[in-house]
Amino acid sequence: MTLSRRNLLKSGAILSATGLLPLSAAAQAQQELPKALQALRPLGDRVKPVTPDEFRARVARAQKLMTDSNAQISALYLTPGTSLYYFSGIRWGISERLLALVIPRAGDALVVCPAFEEGRLREQLRWPIEVRVWQEDENPSEVAAKWLAERGTRTGRVAIEETVRYTFFDRLRDAAPNLEYVSGDPITIGSRGIKSAHELELMRLACEATFDVFRAVFASLQPGMTQNDIAGLVERGFSRMGLRGGALVLLGEWAALPHGTVKPQKLVEGEVVLIDGGTSVEGYQSDVTRCGVMGKPSDKLRNAFAILRRAQDAALDACRSGKLSGAVDDAARAVVASAGFGPGYKFFTHRLGHGIGLDGHEHPYLVRGSKTVLQPGMTFSNEPGIYVRGDYGVRLEDDMVVMPDGAAQLLTPGFSPGFEKPVG
């Protein structure tokens, strides 16, 4: 049985917070935070929050995309999630009670909110937005439909953001049956896929913080530690920096399972220690993987590392404005396959990378056959891997941004120098 990295991080964070993670004898002897982690400090005033003007500019961009769309979209409909935050600055948990943001093609937006939550909502408004509330015995979708009708949208197309629950979409469709409903992807991905200079700055800070924590954790490793011990150090390191973050940790042969295993693992000299994780700054994510070895790495591990570094370089060079996203995967995979770890997905078992921003994984993706035309400001992970089941696994992951001219540039501070010094 395997676990996805995100579920593993989530469950690990819960267990560590409640003190239920089993500690090995080596960890019990090291209850005090290692000195390398004690030296970590918060980012402080280096973090510049997103301003109300930036949120309003995002709404304006969405409206321009709706206006320019051949589909003649009249409004964009969103419920809680990262896209709601992206356009409004509102952070809201999803539940059976509808909270929705409606952005019309022209004019001011609307928030539909449970009446008893209005006070809490208004605390989060970054600029004046009309709020219409609904009582517990009312249909909130009818509130949204009535507002659209008042704005002249009785027919036409409404774009639905991809994470809106089916039940919320279905109830809106019942309340406004004369409207046509289409995918909101061209609007949301068209807006979120291109990062501003400020967004890139926040992502670079998240990457720097991840490097600081990973560097301290690798310096604190001891033989006999379990994967949970090491993951706990990562969480505590981010906490020292005033951040929330975590990591998937894989040891030895289990690093050949890219998203982990439930089997217990212990750190053994000469075997791979794979740490894959990150944090967020003002919601903007980092995603970094580093591999280290206590002691001397074997020749096969050194060979795999060298191949993957060449693959990362090839991907960085292929990731250029105007090129297709699938070509970036092709470039990295060709390096791995030509070195004897092919064909196709045999040893490099997953796509090269994913978009990254407010979500750790978001559109667009670097996968074979993908036809997205790369544009300046798009951001991706660059994470080739070699996985030999029952023996070893190695993955190197950095984050990068498409530039107006030339090859992509790293958002991470630098590629990994080697097993002996995983973090530069």
Number of domains: 2
Q: Please give the alpha-carbon distance between the first and last residues.
A: 34 Å
Strand order of the largest sheet: 4-3-2-1-5-6
The CATH superfamily of the largest domain bears the name Creatinase/methionine aminopeptidase superfamily
Instruction: Write down the CATH class of the largest domain.
Output: Alpha Beta
Helix content: 25-40%
> In sequence order, what are the helices and strands, one letter per element?
HHHHEHEEHEHEHEHHHEEEEHHEEEEEEE
Question: Largest sheet at a glance?
Answer: 6 strands, mixed
Envelope shape? globular
Average pLDDT number: 93
Please identify, by name, the CATH architecture of the largest domain: Alpha-Beta Complex
If helices are DSSP runs of H or I spanning 4 or more residues, what is the number of helices?
13
Stated plainly, the CATH topology of the largest domain is called: Creatine Amidinohydrolase
Rg over CA atoms, rounded to whole Å, is 23 Å
Number of strands: 17
* Class per helix and strand makeup: alpha+beta
Low-confidence blocks of residues: 1-6, 8-21
Strand content: 15-25%
